[in-house]
């Protein structure tokens, strides 16, 4: 049995916790961008993904993603229920069970990412049904293709931490669901501005923090590769923030806090597949390109008339494509492996071709399957809330709650009294008083 590496084990335990933190961070990020009457539904989609996907991963998800390869398409079910992993020892110095737990957090957030495209109009129950089916039919097999020894892995496509398996995958599914559910009531006439920008910034900050576990943790060791991924994650994200703000300044005249938060996420997305394969200067170039292109890509939904509520397509699908393709230009052989120099470092076009093929394959598969699942749910049990519920407030319609209590009287009909079922006492009558003199005393 290989010897346990306590340093690597401690780092991956920490990284797994950081990646889990990203999903509540995503809930805040997405929640702040929605209207106040749908923020709870938006956040519940992320928390629902944590609950559902965690169980599916144990039942069969891990086995499909990382079990023994079957035809390059899926893993077998020998590890269903994580059977045998308690005694299976270590792989690369960390317990096999810890690797399964680390990868679980990737599955959770990938599913949660999709929800931003259908904010303000999706029923919670059908969303959970979609999440379970999509994870089973798309995420688990695609994770096998990319990381578990499947056909994309064998072809030599480079994806260190999830450009294809996570971001292109989720972005394509988000586009499919946005088309199935259709536009929000009065979109694009109404602007649907974020209701709480400080919440958006807090969520973006938590995502940025957690992303170091996402990227540097994917080295599966506390080593030089983790250090490269760590610094590249930071500088690419910083560059993307400035790139997005530059677009806003030139186009709109003002840089915005929403733009800074969105630019950060675009940079994090784009550097994810490439973080261990680039030198820091290459990571900065990638970040600038991602920030600029993703900022411009937000406008596509207005031109093409699809209502992607929180710009999941522009940030995650487009950002994932940018990161995956730029590996073909900016990868360094000393980091990416023999024969994997990018075009700008003297390599040929072969690597770029592989990156493009892997990206297109994941995009197409995820889009088609997500569309079919979403369409079937909409035509059977219904995926979208009624127009009345959407206008009046999806939080109340789906969860019988509201995020904010606007009662102006202490102990009035709302708040803790209402939640406890206690009728407020009548307001005591007061005797009329003499009007106060307008003269100032003295």
From TrEMBL:
It holds the Pfam family Ammonium_transp. InterPro entries: Ammonium/urea_transptr, Ammonium_transpt, Ammonium_transpt_CS, NH4_transpt_AmtB-like_dom. Its main location: membrane. It is a multi-pass membrane protein. Residues 10-404 form the Ammonium transporter AmtB-like domain. One of its GO terms (molecular function) is ammonium channel activity. Residues 417-442 are annotated as: Disordered. One of its GO terms (cellular component) is plasma membrane. The chain crosses the membrane at residues 12-32, 39-60, 97-119, 126-148, 160-182, 194-214, 226-246, 258-277, 283-300, 312-336, 356-377. Keywords: Ammonia transport, Cell membrane, Membrane, Transmembrane, Transmembrane helix, Transport. It is found in: Cell membrane. Homotrimer. Belongs to the ammonia transporter channel (TC 1.A.11.2) family. PANTHER family: AMMONIUM TRANSPORTER MEP2. Involved in the uptake of ammonium/ammonia (NH(4)(+)/NH(3)). This is Ammonium transporter.
């Amino acid at each position: 049995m290989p010897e346990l590496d306590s340093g690597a084990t401690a780092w991956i335990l920490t990284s797994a916790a950081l990646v889990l933190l990203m999903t509540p961070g995503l809930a805040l990020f997405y929640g702040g961008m929605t209207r106040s009457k749908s923020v709870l539904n938006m956040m519940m989609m992320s928390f629902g993904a944590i609950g559902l996907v965690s169980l599916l991963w144990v039942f069969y998800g891990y086995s499909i993603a990382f079990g023994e390869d079957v035809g390059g398409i899926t893993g077998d079910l020998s590890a269903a229920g994580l059977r045998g992993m308690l005694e299976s020892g270590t792989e690369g110095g960390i317990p096999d069970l810890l690797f399964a737990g680390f990868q679980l957090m990737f599955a959770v957030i990938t599913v949660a990412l999709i929800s931003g495209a259908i904010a303000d109009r999706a029923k919670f129950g059908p969303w959970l049904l979609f999440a379970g089916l999509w994870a089973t039919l798309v995420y688990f097999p695609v994770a096998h293709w990319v990381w578990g020894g499947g056909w994309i892995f064998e072809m030599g496509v480079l994806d260190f931490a999830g450009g294809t398996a996570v971001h292109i995958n989720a972005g394509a599914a988000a586009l499919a669901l946005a088309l199935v559910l259709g536009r929000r009531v009065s979109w694009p006439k109404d602007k649907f501005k974020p209701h709480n920008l400080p919440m958006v910034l807090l969520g973006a900050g938590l995502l940025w923090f957690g992303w170091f576990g996402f990227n540097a943790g994917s080295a599966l060791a506390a080593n030089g590769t983790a250090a490269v991924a760590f610094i590249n994650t930071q500088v690419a994200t910083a560059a993307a923030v400035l790139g997005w703000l530059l677009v806003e300044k030139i186009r709109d005249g003002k840089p915005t806090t929403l733009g800074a938060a969105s630019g950060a996420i675009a940079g994090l997305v784009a550097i994810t597949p490439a973080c261990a394969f680039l030198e820091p200067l290459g990571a900065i170039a990638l970040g600038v390109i991602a920030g600029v292109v993703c900022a411009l890509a937000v406008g596509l939904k207005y031109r093409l008339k699809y209502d992607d509520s929180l710009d999941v397509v522009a940030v995650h699908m487009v950002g994932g494509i940018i990161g995956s393709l730029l590996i073909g230009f900016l990868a360094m052989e000393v980091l990416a492996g023999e024969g994997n120099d990018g075009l700008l470092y003297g390599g040929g076009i072969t690597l770029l071709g592989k990156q493009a093929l892997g990206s297109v394959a994941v995009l197409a598969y995820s889009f088609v399957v997500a569309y079919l699942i979403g369409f079937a749910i909409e035509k059977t049990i219904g995926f979208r809330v009624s127009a009345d519920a959407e206008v009046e407030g999806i939080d109340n319609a789906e969860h019988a709650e509201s995020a904010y209590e606007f009662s102006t009287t202490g102990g009035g009909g709302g708040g803790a009294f209402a939640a406890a079922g206690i009728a407020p006492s009548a307001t005591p009558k007061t005797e009329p008083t003499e009007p106060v003199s307008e003269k100032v005393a003295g």
